[in-house]
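Pipeline run #58 for the internal structure catalog. This entry was flagged by the ingest filter as a single-chain record with no existing model, so it goes straight to prediction. Upstream metadata was stripped on purpose; only the residue string is passed forward. Reviewer on rotation: M.T. Logging verbosity set to normal.
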Amino acid sequence: MVASLGAFLLFWALLSALKGDPSILPSPIAVWQALVNQLLAGKLLYHVWMTLLRVIAAFSISMVIGTGLGMALGTWPRFNRWADPWVVVFLNLPALVVIVLCYLWIGLNDVAAITAVAINKIAMVSVTVREGMFVLDRGIAEMAQVYRLGRWTRFRHILLPQLAPFLAASVRNGLAVIWKIVLVVEFLGRSNGVGFQIHLYFQLFDVANVLAYSLSFVAVMLAIEYLIVKPFERRTTTPR
């Protein structure tokens, strides 16, 4: 990972030197200086934190609703046939349309922003979990019935372990999609957050600060990936 990131920085520095125009492609050092200035001014942490809160809220809502919906779709075939066209619609509905409609119907506030992001992700989670429900080992379920295991015991020790790889995939894909949509939401209609700051410096054509804010949140996502998502994925997919 270190070698990969180092090679990227080297390529970036060489490309910046060849371009020779800091207003178009600033060097890594110039972007680092912009990032430090934003950090010292107290702006960087505030805006990253606001974006992270929206990501956490939208991710939590979409995972809870999407998991429940996916289980229902995989359990009841008739309900799955009835809901399948709507799942397809929401899977292919452009995020921009949902964002604009939520802002028009709910208002330019965080409720609309989080709702728009969650709606864009719920269908993806439900489809992934539904596929997991389709491949459950029915023999294990029948054995649980023979031994008269309670619902909570079956849910905890039979259903969840089999769904864990699909839930892990939903977590990874969810974070990857949600934080991108959150930046678009902030770009279009919020007064704080990384997306708002990128919009502000885009208007000023300040590429260094645009890259500084972009890379700061990329760093947050990498930290979440390697400290939370990967350990969770290894734990849920490693055979015991």
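catalog note: The chain has a mean pLDDT of 84.
catalog note: The chain has ten helices and no strands.
status: ready for reviewer M.T.
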